[in-house]
Amino acid sequence: MEDPKRIYECLLDYCSSTKIIERVSIGLVWTVCQTLQHEALHSGLSMTPVAPTRTLKWPGTLAGKPLKDVAQGIMQWEPYQATTAMAAINCSINQGSDLPECELLTAQKGSANLTVFEYFLPLIQNQKVVVIGHYPGIEHYIEQYGWQVLERTPVTGDLPDPACEFLLPDADWIFLSASSLANKTFPRLAELSQSAKTVLMGPTVPWLAELYQFGIDYLAGVEVVDPQALYQTAAEGGGVRIFETGVRYKVLALTEENNLLWFKKKIAATYTRKQTLSQAMDQWYSQGNNKRFPQYAELHDTNHQLSLLDSGYKTLFDQQQST
């Protein structure tokens, strides 16, 4: 990848500077960041680092901060700071109204966290499959189909992550854990995966059409269906149980057609927000107010995102016309 920072700059571009953090929980498995807007909770997830720590300096300071302030930590190497930043980014990006039209997956009873693998199973028979990240219960697929699993802290049957340099270029299908975004391995792993069909998966997935630019063919992320249950489950140490209480898997193929439709949907929604805010600002000043419009920063954010979306749509449209 020419510039490994590009994906992180893209994530930060789409992170709101006005939405305020309501609460953050760093659970044993999942870190959850939530905002409260119009009496509705919005959530972002990221996988908590494996190694515990007792020396973080910022606990007790995150609630009340803008998402984007915390999101800047995605550029840092301290794992808890980067993880919390990723949760803040997802809290901004993964809002229900902005999600694409995806295929909702039926959870596998007793193994809901493996639902994505079951969905793709008919497509990957007799293929070289590499899974980056050890998912509880994946041993079944290793034994029955010969899949190879790479893990930073390998257990029996896993290969250490340096094996990626040898295995990924020859793979047919790669399932890439979105936690690779927070731990900074994503740029290299995505680069090594260019010859394969690549699925970015897990609750840490940011729903961004621009991920096709990094060689991602499918997004297999989550939709939060019960933010309160999600928060409580994660705070109480829940891992795979969040799939039974707070989230459900959805899959989207990042084809040109799907991406163009997704861009159009987001542009329309963002333009509507811009019009609503612009009208509110006009009314504010027409009433004789001399102070800055209270939602000026939100309007500025909306204009910025509209510009990003327009550019993204034009880039993809031009690519389609040239092929």
Question: SSE layout and pairings?
Answer:
Blueprint: H1 6-13, E1 21-26, E2 30-37, E3 40-47, H2 67-71, H3 79-93, E4 103-104, H4 115-120, E5 129-132, H5 139-145, E6 148-151, E7 159-160, H6 164-167, E8 173-177, H7 179-182, H8 186-192, E9 197-201, E10 218-224, H9 227-235, H10 242-245, E11 247-253, H11 256-286, H12 296-322
Parallel strand pairs: 5-6, 5-8, 6-7, 8-9, 9-10
Antiparallel strand pairs: 1-2, 2-3, 4-11, 10-11
Domain Putative heavy-metal chelation: 116-252
Domain DUF4213: 8-90
Protein name: Heavy-metal chelation domain-containing protein
How would you briefly describe this protein structure?
This protein is of the alpha/beta class and about 325 residues long. It has helices spanning about 5-15, 65-70, 80-95, 115-120, 140-145, 165, 180, 185-190, 225-235, 240-245, 255-285, 295-320, and strands spanning about 20-25, 30-35, 40-45, 105, 130, 150, 160, 175, 195-200, 220-225, 245-255.
